[in-house]
Amino acid sequence: MDSQSKILVTGAGGFIGGHLVARLLEMGVPSVRCVDIKPESQWQQEHRRCENLVLDLRDAGACSRACHGIEIIFNLASDMGGIGFIESHKADCMRNVLINSNLIQAAVDVEAERYFFASSACVYPDYRQRAEQVGGLKEQDAYPAMPEDGYGWEKLFSERLCHHFHQDHGLETRVGRFHNVYGPKGSWNDGREKAPAAICRKIAEAQLDGSDSIEIWGDGSQVRSFLNVEDCVDAILWLTASDCAEPLNIGSEERITVRELVSVIEDIAEYPVDINFKKDAPVGVNARSSDNSRISRILGWEPSVDLWTGLEATYIWVREELIKQRSGQRSFAELPVDHRLRLVGSEDSVALAG
Ligand code: NAD
User: Fold this and answer.
1) Are strands 181-182 and 227-228 parallel, antiparallel or unpaired?
2) What contacts 198, CB < 8 A, 6 or more positions away?
3) Which letter, b or e, does each residue of 112-136 get, where b requires 16 or more Cβ atoms within 10 Å of its Cβ?
4) Distances in Å between the alpha carbon of 352 and those of 201, 282, 292, 342, 346?
5) Residues 6+ apart with CB under 8 A from 162
6) Which end of the chain is more exposed for a tag (fewer CB within 10 A), N or C?
7) pLDDT for 134
8) CA distance 81 to 74
9) Using an 8 Å Cβ cutoff, are 78 and 97 in contact?
10) What is the pLDDT at residue 353?
11) Is residue 174 a contact partner of residue 116, using CB atoms and an 8 Å limit?
12) Catalytic annotation on 315?
């Protein structure tokens, strides 16, 4: 892959796709073809120097159009979200198979050099993610298969598509299994947000409203690991440039409970809260984290952004988005002073923000 390669990023209007496009431009790629189903006004990041197309990639014709003249494909398009979304939209999640099967065929048709597929830790079976599980998930743990029902089955099937298109058609496929990627410029309030953004929003709302409690799904004991989006983008680029056609984990090994995650964000916000545990809400598996032995051996990659630094940037971004939303998108400085005071909570902050 060089800076002159003709590159397609699908899901470019979303969270990770948006950060990937931004990085490619920073690296000197003159333009990227960006595709998403959402209208451009709803893309998480603007991609001004790019060729931006709004297409539904479940359609084979749309995939041909997206891939025309392209050499390298990063496929991050997916109808997905946090546990609340994927538990209640299993059929929609499974229809992502149309994106992944039509796009990979279009990649073969244009003789693309490389095809990266964004898979998920949801391919791993529940029986490897029980409370007593102490270590991280290794790539071979995906089999015997019993992935998360719906979204996870579709991801595992699409991994197999990559494997067989590589074997039968010689397409250079690369598969990254993402584990809980977080950071600014992603879903935070549209029903698709994941735990880090949701908790940042709840604490920011509590702080702005002067409330002393937030609701958390489950009992807070679920174990997870969280990967910063900049580290995720590094790993996507390293993996795509490598010779490794087998799936690799792209995650963090740092295990943390949801209760501990709340504590870190409380400390960042300097705003302690009481927690109401909603125990009948969907929580997913008991314990999930990545084992990075294989990716670190093959690519020499490991995460570099520590959780505090990454969450601090995420919290600041979510809080700013919330303030913007509450001010009805008007410029902050145009709001009456008493309204500004209510939103930011202190005269110092008003001075800084105004
Ligand atoms: P995201 O929802 O922000 O981005 C996905 C984008 O795909 C969205 O902008 C959406 O509009 C677009 N899309 C959906 N259906 C489409 C269609 N039919 N045609 C064209 N575009 C379509 O999600 P994300 O967090 O950026 O995830 C990117 C990829 O990584 C996805 O494949 C996701 O399954 C995978 N993944 C993400 C995580 C994570 O923690 N964020 C974890 C595991 C896997």
Assistant:
1) parallel
2) 82, 188
3) bbbbbbbbbbbbbbeebbeeebeeb
4) 21, 40, 42, 15, 10
5) 104, 115, 117, 173, 174, 175, 245
6) C
7) 79
8) 19
9) no
10) 29
11) yes
12) no
Compute, in angstroms, the gap from residue 59 CA to the centroid of ligand 1.
Answer: 17
Beta bridge partners of residue 34, listed in sequence order: 9, 52
Q: Are 22 and 184 in contact, with CB atoms under 8 Å apart?
A: no
Sequential pLDDT tens for the chain (354 residues): 666 789 999 999 999 999 999 999 999 999 899 999 999 999 999 999 899 999 999 999 999 999 999 999 999 999 999 999 999 999 999 999 999 999 999 999 999 999 999 999 999 999 999 988 879 999 999 999 999 999 999 999 999 999 999 999 999 999 999 999 999 999 999 999 999 999 999 999 999 999 999 999 999 999 999 999 999 999 999 999 999 999 999 999 999 999 999 999 999 999 999 999 999 998 889 999 999 999 999 999 999 999 999 999 999 999 999 999 998 855 445 555 565 555 555 433 333 322
From 9, 23, 76, mutation site for ligand 1 pocket: most ligand atoms within 8 A of C-beta:
76
Residue 2 confidence (pLDDT): 66
Nearest atom (ligand 1) to Cα of 178 = 43
